[in-house]
Specification:
Layout (H helix, E strand, L loop, with lengths): L3 H14 L2 H8 L3 H12 L18 H10 L6 H10 L6 H19 L13 E8 L9 E7 L4 E7 L4 H15 L5 E4 L6 E5 L2 E4 L1 H10 L2 E4 L9 H14 L13 H17 L9 H8 L17 E4 L5 E4 L2 E4 L8 E7 L2 E8 L2 E9 L32 H7 L3 H13 L4 H15 L1 H14 L6 H11 L30
Parallel strand pairs: 1-4, 4-7
Antiparallel strand pairs: 1-2, 2-3, 5-6, 8-11, 9-10, 11-12, 12-13
Helix pairs in contact: 1-2, 2-3, 4-6, 5-6, 12-14, 13-15, 14-15, 15-16
């Protein structure tokens, strides 16, 4: 194959001499070569065009093109080689691979999808999608990932399920975080959004349509199995999973509780919205302030129909569902919450100024067996009925006695449990003795009396006298000393003096 400069020299020699052989002598090539390039130029074809020789695989190219088209460009070359070998092809597999690669390349050029750049408008679109979250205690979690395409503002919320009430709660929390409602919401074809497709037309879930009407927006869905139509939300899920789900790449530790995952999602949302975006060169939190002016106003109340039935929280921090009591956080006392069953779980939702949020989740219980959780009650009320009560002074005399110290409190608890008579008189005597012998000595004596169970009239005075006369510490058994009587008295037994 001649290079371009050599071809030009051959054609110039022919134009100068008008003879194939003379031009060949000047150009230093064969006269047949001169004739071929002159013919190509006369036909208007490129002199660099190479003549395709006939190959044994040419008669099987129609079959190869058929197999590539039927498979959507995914068929393997070894599969094609087995097919055409049974049809009589005697060539090698390398020839087949080259032919299949050429046909795939031509097919992809004709099938390549061309995208028109999407230029979002402020306040027009909101996209959301789901991501697989980390496991907490062996339980699967999910990540609600939403974003505004214009300002690039992201919201990530962890969830435990993908039911319709959870979708509504996440959507309401996202809109209140954004401070307004966009015109359209684009998402995937989950069953909570799309019931079915009829002639490629998505049939909406009637309940999600009511939610959209409540907030004044329109629900749109992408083409099934076509992530390119919602690439922004897909990218948000990818970024959130990379920073929140523990993997070998990010070296994150496992989450012990769901509250830790919620805190991590809040920190992630604040971080990504506060840093400069690569495309817009703006911070999403700052761009949101500008886009918020184009958003529709939020309704004053959240859409609560999907959260179940309402229940009033009793003063014992419980609600009654199907004749069974379930506990809820104590700060919700005398408020109204929503309860619904999802499988074998009862989910309790409360609506505040920040939107709806799940506040409790219980396994389904049976009548007569209430489901009560200690974390729903303040620390003081978590003590059981059999726990020992701590003395608290109600009068000045009681306060003066308990001020002696922990020994006095222990004496009062033990004396009351033993049913001792004249407890108040003996408390007053202890306060009087403290003025004579000192508070520390009397408190110590009261503690000793409580341990020994001595509550008679003169026991406290006797204990004080014993502590005053004998300050030596008591002898206790140890590895080096034993309380067992020794045999030293027998050391002289059998001696001459004793006989």
């Amino acid at each position: 194959m001649k290079r371009g400069r050599e071809i030009v020299e051959i054609l110039e020699a022919y134009d100068l001499t008008g003879s194939y052989r003379a031009a060949a002598e000047l150009a230093g090539c064969d006269h047949h070569t001169v004739a071929r390039y002159v013919k190509l130029r006369a036909e208007g074809r490129s002199p660099e065009e190479r003549t395709q020789r006939a190959r044994p695989i040419d008669e099987f190219m129609d079959k190869i093109e058929e197999l590539v088209a039927r498979s959507g460009g995914r068929v393997r070359a070894d599969v094609v080689h087995r097919r055409i070998t049974t049809m009589g092809f005697a060539g090698g597999e390398r020839t087949t691979r080259r032919a299949v690669a050429a046909v795939k390349k031509s097919w992809q050029v004709g099938q390549r999808r061309v995208f028109r750049p999407w230029i979002p408008e402020p306040g027009l679109w909101l996209q959301f999608d789901w991501g697989e979250g980390p496991r907490i205690g062996g339980r699967r979690t999910g990540l609600w990932c939403a974003w505004l395409p214009w300002s690039r503002f992201r919201v990530v919320i962890p969830v435990l399920d993908k039911t319709l009430p959870t979708v509504v709660a996440c959507l309401d929390a996202t809109l209140r975080r954004l401070g307004g409602v966009p015109a359209y919401v684009l998402t995937d074809n989950e069953k909570t959004i799309t019931v079915e497709h009829v002639a490629d037309i998505a049939v909406r879930n009637p309940e999600i349509v009511q939610v959209a009407r409540h907030y004044g927006m329109t629900i749109r869905t992408c083409v099934p199995a076509d992530p390119q139509s919602k690439g922004g939300a897909e990218n948000t899920v990818k970024i959130a999973k990379a920073d929140l789900v523990p993997t070998n790449a990010n070296l994150l530790g496992q989450y012990r509780t769901f509250a830790e995952l919620e805190a991590a999602c809040r920190d992630f949302t604040d971080e990504v919205n506060a840093r400069l975006h690569r495309d817009t060169r703006r911070r999403p939190a700052e761009a949101l302030l500008e886009e918020r002016a184009r958003l529709h106003p939020l309704p004053a109340r959240a859409f609560t129909v999907a959260f179940g039935t309402t229940r009033r929280v009793n003063w014992d921090c419980t609600i009654s569902v199907d004749g069974v009591r379930y506990s809820v956080p104590h700060h919700l006392v005398d408020t109204r919450v929503w309860a619904r069953f999802h499988g074998d779980e009862l989910i309790v939702t409360a609506v505040s100024e920040d939107g709806p949020a799940e506040v409790a989740r219980h396994q389904r219980a049976q009548p007569g067996r209430p489901s009560i959780r200690d974390e729903h009650y303040p620390p003081r009320s978590r003590q059981s009925d059999t726990a020992q009560r701590v003395p608290r002074a109600r009068t000045a005399d009681e306060a003066a006695f308990l001020a002696l110290g922990p020994g006095a409190a222990a004496w009062l608890v033990e004396a009351a449990a033993a049913g001792i008579r004249g407890v108040r008189r003996k408390m007053a005597e202890a306060v009087a003795l403290a003025k004579l012998h000192g508070v520390d000595h009397v408190d110590r004596a009261l503690g000793t009396a409580a341990l020994a169970g001595r509550f008679s009239d003169n026991d406290l005075i006797r204990i004080l006298a014993h502590q005053r006369d004998d300050d030596t510490p008591p002898t206790r058994a140890s590895e080096t000393h034993s309380l067992q009587p020794g045999t030293s008295a027998w050391s002289t037994f059998g001696t001459t003096g004793e006989q």
